[in-house]
C-alpha cells in the first residue's frame, strides 16, 4: 500500500508501481483495492475501445475482468514530478498496451486513487510521420517519369471518390470535420469531407455580422497548427473562416465543397456505406467503410410553429439565417430567445439603430466573459497557463481527467465566486426583469453546455444593454400569435414588429440521420449530446459520457463528431485512432457500448 506520508512524487510512483504489478500478474483484486470507494477511471479508447467512465470499484473490477487480458498494459512510467494541493496528489504517466501507447493522469487521496485517466495516443506500427519519422518529400536521384508533389496530389484528388473509394466520409466541413480530416490524413486514412458550402469556412462567414468566438484563443486551436501568438483573444467569424479555408489547403485535405449528401444506406453484403452526393450539381456515389457526421453540436434549427406566422408582412427567420443588422435601422425588431445568439443579435441591432425587444421564455445563465476567463478557463487556457507550463495539449488532458459525475463539484465554487464578482450586474439585470440562473445545481455554464447545449450567454457586452433598458425585455412569456405587423405575447402584450428572429436553438444531431438514412436508424442511434443528468433538457438515466459523441454508436460504422473548438480538437484524436484501427484490421472489442434511451 502507498505510504501517504512520503512526498507526492514518491507516493505517485509507488502507487503506479503497485498498480502496474497487479495488472501484470492479473491480480484484479489487488488492482481494485488501490482505488477509493468513491473513485473513477475514465478511459479514452486505450482499454475499452470506447469513451467510458467506470464509476466506483465494482465498475472498475468489471472492466478489468473483461478487458485486462486483451489489453495487456505494461511499461507504466511516471512523467515529471507529481504535485500536491489540498491533500490531493496529481501525477502524469505513460504506459503501453498490446497495440498502442498511451498517456494518463492520476489523482491520489490518502494513498488511494480518486480519479484515473487513461488515453490512447498512438497505435504501434501506425505512428504519425512526425519528427524523426517525417517523410523526406524530395526524391533524390534520377527517375524517369517521376511525378512531383503537385502531380501526385492532383492524381489523388481525381481518383478518390471515383476510381478509388475512401475509407471514411465525413459529412460536414466545419471546424469539426476539418480537424478530424487532418487527424485522419496524418494517419494515412483515405478520407473525403463533404460540405454543402462553396468554401471551407463559409459556415462561419455566413453567420450574422457581429459574430465572434466567445471562447478565448488558447482554448480554440486546431490540431497540429496553433493560431499565431498575435491572434486575437476572441476571433471574428470571417477571420476564423479564412483560417479554416487555409488549413484545409495546408493540411492537404480532400475537401468536397459545393457538395450535398442526399441519401445514405449501409450495404450489408459489401460492409460499406453507399452515400449519394451531388458535387457541383453532378451525382456521385461514395462507398466508404465508415461514415462520420460532423455537424457541430446540433441538428436542424428549431423554428417554433406560431399561429399567424404565415401572415407576417415583415422579415422573419431563424437566428442561423440572420443576415445582420444593416437593413433594420429604425425598425421594430423582436428576438425570441435569450441565449448567446439572441444577445449577440439584439446587441448588433441596437448598435445599428433598431428598436429591439428580447423575449425571454425561461431563465438564462449569464457568465461575464472576463470573469469566465479569470475564474474558469485561465488556469488551463491563458498566457498565465502557458507560463506555468500548461499548453492546450496538457490543458485538454487536465480537463478530460475530471469525470462528468463529479465535474459539477469542481465548477460550483467558480460560479459562487462569479456571483460575488459580478453582483452589481446581476442585481441590475434582475431589476430589469431578466430571469437568471446558475444551472440546476449552481454549476454554471460548462455543465449547462454539456447537459443540454443551451441556456446560457457568455456576456461580451449585451447584458449591460439589457440591464440599462437599451434592449427592451419581456420575460417569462412567449409569442402566442404573429400578426401582420406585430406579435401578441402570452400575457396579452402586443409588440409592433418589422423583424422577427427565432433564436430558438437546434434539435439533436441524429435528426440529420432521419432524412439522410432513415427514421429507424436515427431512433436506433438515439439522441446525441447530454449526460443523462436528469436536469432540465437532459433526461436520465445517467450516461456518464456525452451521448454518442466520438465513440461507437448503436449503428456499426456510424459516428458523430462535433462540439466546440476545444472538444473538436481534443476528441478528434480518439475518434481518428478508432477509425484507423478498424481500417488496419486491429481487433477493437467495444466495452459496454452505450444503450440508446432517447430518440429525437
Describe this protein's structure.
The chain has 600 residues and is an alpha/beta fold. Helix content is 31%, strand content 23%. The protein is built from 18 helices and 24 strands. Strands 2-1-6-5-4-3 form a six-stranded mixed sheet, sandwiched between helices. Strands 9-8-7-13-24 form a five-stranded parallel sheet, covered by helices on one side. Strand 10 (259-267) and strand 11 (272-279) form a beta hairpin. The protein starts with 7 loop residues before the first helix and ends in a 17-residue tail after the last helix.
**Largest sheet entry:** 6 strands, mixed
Return residue spans where pLDDT drops below 50 for at least 5 consecutive residues. Answer: none
- Rg is 25 Å
Mean pLDDT: 95
Q: Order of strands across the widest beta sheet?
A: 2-1-6-5-4-3
Q: Which structural class best describes the helix and strand composition?
A: alpha/beta
Count the helices. How many? 18
Please count the beta strands (DSSP E, at least 2 residues each).
24
Shape verdict: globular
Task: State the oligomer.
Answer: single chain
Distance between the termini: 49 Å
Which bin fits the share of residues in helices? 25-40%
User: Which strand-content bin applies to the residues?
Assistant: 15-25%
Amino acid at each position: 500500500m502507498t505510504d501517504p506520508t512520503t512526498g507526492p512524487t514518491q507516493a505517485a510512483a509507488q502507487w503506479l508501481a503497485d498498480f502496474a504489478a497487479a495488472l501484470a500478474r492479473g491480480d484484479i483484486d489487488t488492482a481494485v483495492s488501490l482505488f477509493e470507494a468513491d473513485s473513477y477511471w475514465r478511459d479514452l479508447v486505450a482499454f475499452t475501445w470506447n469513451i467510458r467512465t467506470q464509476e466506483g470499484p465494482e465498475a472498475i473490477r468489471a472492466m478489468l475482468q473483461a478487458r485486462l487480458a486483451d489489453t495487456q498494459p505494461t511499461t507504466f512510467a511516471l512523467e515529471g514530478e507529481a504535485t500536491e494541493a489540498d491533500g490531493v496528489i496529481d501525477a502524469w504517466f505513460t504506459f503501453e498496451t498490446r497495440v498502442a501507447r498511451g498517456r494518463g493522469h492520476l489523482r491520489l487521496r490518502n494513498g488511494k486513487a480518486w480519479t484515473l485517466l487513461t488515453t490512447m495516443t498512438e497505435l504501434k506500427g501506425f505512428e504519425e510521420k512526425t519528427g524523426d519519422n517525417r517523410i523526406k518529400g524530395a526524391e533524390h536521384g534520377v527517375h524517369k517519369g517521376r511525378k512531383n508533389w503537385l502531380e501526385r496530389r492532383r492524381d489523388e484528388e481525381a481518383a478518390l471518390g471515383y476510381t478509388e473509394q475512401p475509407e471514411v466520409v465525413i459529412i460536414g466541413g466545419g471546424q469539426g470535420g476539418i480537424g478530424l480530416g487532418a487527424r485522419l490524413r496524418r494517419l494515412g486514412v483515405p478520407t473525403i469531407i463533404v460540405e454543402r458550402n462553396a468554401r471551407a469556412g463559409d459556415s462561419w462567414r455566413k453567420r450574422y455580422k457581429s459574430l465572434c468566438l466567445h471562447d478565448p484563443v488558447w482554448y480554440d486551436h486546431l490540431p497540429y497548427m496553433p493560431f499565431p501568438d498575435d491572434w486575437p483573444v476572441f476571433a471574428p467569424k470571417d477571420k476564423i473562416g479564412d483560417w479554416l479555408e487555409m488549413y484545409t489547403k495546408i493540411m492537404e485535405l480532400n475537401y468536397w465543397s459545393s457538395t450535398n449528401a442526399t441519401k445514405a444506406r449501409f450495404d450489408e453484403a459489401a460492409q460499406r456505406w453507399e452515400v449519394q452526393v451531388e458535387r457541383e450539381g453532378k451525382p456521385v456515389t461514395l462507398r466508404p467503410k465508415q461514415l462520420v457526421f460532423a455537424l457541430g453540436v446540433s441538428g436542424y434549427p428549431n423554428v417554433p410553429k406560431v399561429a399567424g406566422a404565415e401572415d407576417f408582412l415583415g422579415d422573419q427567420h431563424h437566428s442561423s439565417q440572420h443576415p445582420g443588422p444593416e437593413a433594420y435601422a429604425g425598425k421594430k425588431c423582436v428576438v425570441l430567445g435569450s441565449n448567446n445568439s439572441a444577445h449577440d443579435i439584439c446587441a448588433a441591432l441596437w448598435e445599428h439603430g433598431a428598436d429591439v425587444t428580447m423575449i425571454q421564455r425561461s431563465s438564462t445563465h449569464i457568465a461575464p466573459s472576463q470573469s469566465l476567463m479569470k475564474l474558469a478557463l485561465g488556469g488551463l487556457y491563458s498566457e498565465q497557463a502557458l507560463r506555468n507550463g500548461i499548453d492546450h495539449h496538457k490543458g485538454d488532458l487536465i480537463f478530460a481527467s475530471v469525470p462528468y459525475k463529479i465535474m459539477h463539484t469542481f465548477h460550483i465554487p467558480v460560479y459562487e465566486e462569479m456571483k460575488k464578482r459580478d453582483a452589481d450586474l446581476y442585481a441590475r439585470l434582475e431589476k430589469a426583469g431578466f430571469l437568471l440562473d446558475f444551472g440546476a445545481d449552481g454549476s454554471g455554464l460548462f455543465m449547462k453546455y454539456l447537459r443540454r447545449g443551451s441556456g446560457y450567454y457568455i456576456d461580451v457586452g449585451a447584458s449591460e444593454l439589457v440591464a440599462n433598458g437599451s434592449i427592451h425585455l419581456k420575460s417569462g412569456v412567449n409569442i402566442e400569435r404573429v400578426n401582420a405587423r406585430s406579435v401578441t405575447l402570452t400575457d396579452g402584450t402586443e409588440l409592433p414588429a418589422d423583424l422577427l428572429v427565432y433564436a430558438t436553438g437546434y434539435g439533436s444531431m441524429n435528426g440529420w440521420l432521419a432524412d439522410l438514412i432513415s427514421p429507424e436508424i436515427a431512433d436506433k442511434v438515439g439522441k446525441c449530446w447530454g449526460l443523462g443528468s436528469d436536469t432540465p433538457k437532459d433526461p436520465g438515466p445517467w450516461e456518464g459520457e456525452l451521448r454518442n459523441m466520438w465513440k461507437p454508436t448503436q449503428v456499426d460504422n456510424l459516428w458523430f463528431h462535433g462540439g466546440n473548438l476545444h472538444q473538436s480538437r481534443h476528441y478528434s484524436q480518439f475518434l481518428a485512432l478508432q477509425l484507423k484501427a478498424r481500417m488496419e484490421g486491429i481487433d477493437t472489442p467495444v466495452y459496454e457500448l452505450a444503450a440508446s434511451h432517447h430518440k429525437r
